[in-house]
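Per your request, structure below.
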């Protein structure tokens, strides 16, 4: 399948809002063929999302162009890409561009001391 997917991380996701990352992408075949599903891949990294990383399937057979990853933790750097799959032939598209999300730890809440 010769098509690319354009991928975008929603801005709130980059900062780890509520410890989730929302991915959304646009299939360049609009609308996509009815027999299209999407597979989301994720890897973790200590620095960046370039080079060879051990990507694993996070979710397959999606029929919508969005997915929320709720399995992220403070301080993690997560790398994602998506492939479209033709469910009739099993052919996969080229991978989308990679997207990166860094989950920024929440600052602790400090209470002022009470002086009596």
């Amino acid at each position: 399948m010769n098509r690319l997917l354009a991928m975008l991380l929603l801005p709130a996701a980059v900062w780890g809002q509520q410890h989730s990352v929302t991915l959304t992408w646009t299939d360049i075949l609009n609308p996509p063929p009815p027999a299209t599903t999407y597979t989301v891949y994720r890897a973790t990294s200590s620095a960046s999302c370039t080079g060879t990383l051990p990507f694993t399937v996070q979710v397959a057979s999606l029929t919508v162009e969005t997915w929320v990853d709720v399995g992220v933790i403070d301080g993690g750097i997560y790398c994602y890409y998506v492939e479209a799959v033709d469910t009739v032939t099993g052919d996969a598209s080229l991978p989308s561009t990679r997207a990166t999300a860094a989950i920024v730890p929440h600052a602790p809440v400090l209470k002022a001391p009470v002086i009596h």
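The longest strand covers residues 36-45.

Regards,
D.
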